[in-house]
From TrEMBL:
Region entry Disordered, spans: 303-322
Protein name according to UniProt: TauD/TfdA-like domain-containing protein
Organism ancestry: Eukaryota, Fungi, Dikarya, Ascomycota, Pezizomycotina
TM region(s), chain numbering: none
UniProt cross-references to Pfam families, sorted A to Z: TauD
Domain TauD/TfdA-like: 13-255
InterPro entries for the chain: AlphaKG_dependent_hydroxylases, TauD-like_sf, TauD/TfdA-like
Keyword Oxidoreductase recorded: yes
Organism: Fusarium duplospermum
One GO MF term: oxidoreductase activity
Keywords for this protein: Oxidoreductase
Amino acid sequence: MSAMSLGIKGKDIKQSSFPLPSLGKTLCGLRHDIYHGRGFATLRGFKVDALSPADITTAYLGLTSYIAEKRGKQNQQGTMMINVVNTSEDIVRANAQVVMIWSVTPSMLTLSSGPVGGSGILASAWTVYNELAKSRPDLIRVLSEPDWPFDTHGRDPPYYKRALLYYEDGKVITNYSRRILCGEPNNGPRTPGIPGLTEAQAEAIDALHAIGRRHELKQSMEKGDIRFINNLAVMHRRDPYEDTTHDHRHLLRLWLHSDSLCWKLPLDLELAWERVFNDHERREEWHFVKYSSTGEQHVVPVWNDLSDPKPPPGPRPIAKCD
């Protein structure tokens, strides 16, 4: 069944319009495990080769609607689905060491895993917290102070401050991207003139990553895999990877949210989530990257919201994530 025959797109794709009598029950079980169990899950075997971009997108949204009912806008342009590919601007970063991050990336569909590298690497944030609390409780206090300077990369104001670590509703919660706090020389250097990390903060963030590495679990990313992560409970990163002219790593990324199952959030994160998942001002944009026989990338629209949108909202600092 094609996307055109279903007659639905974007926000119209949900459980009620995409019935899965058998698989839907399995997905609902995974949903509870993601939010209140292991914190991650992988659905394997999505046959992507024979499908058009519209059909891949429709099926991906239909499947993920059983995990979470909301999808977030991932940038100021209202892009709903990010194509994670290696571009000329990203080559240095793609082949460099990628550190542990917490981010709003609970779902990725692997269209192509590429020839070398790119495995997903996970670590329990609670395991990391427990070890840090036992060995360096002073760093727990540093992580909990609301004075970490987050770079907004060109927005106004140029930075804002909040904590990295919270305790809310009986749960330890942390959410950040190291790039926003530390910058990367070849991909998003830190904005000049904003505060840097203190010596104590630098020590604390390095300790988080060191402990995460001791407890990490490597997960292969095969073509057709759909991975879900509870970003509040699991640290995640990826291995460096390489592309060739005819073999490229290509993932589709959605930001998902379940009102009924998501953990209660601290106010700082709640405001950021509101901006991502309940923004009705920016119109939705859906794009797909295709490769030519020579390896050139071409961006094609899947479908876009063609209604007349309201004027773009003014800049507002949020916890931007990788």
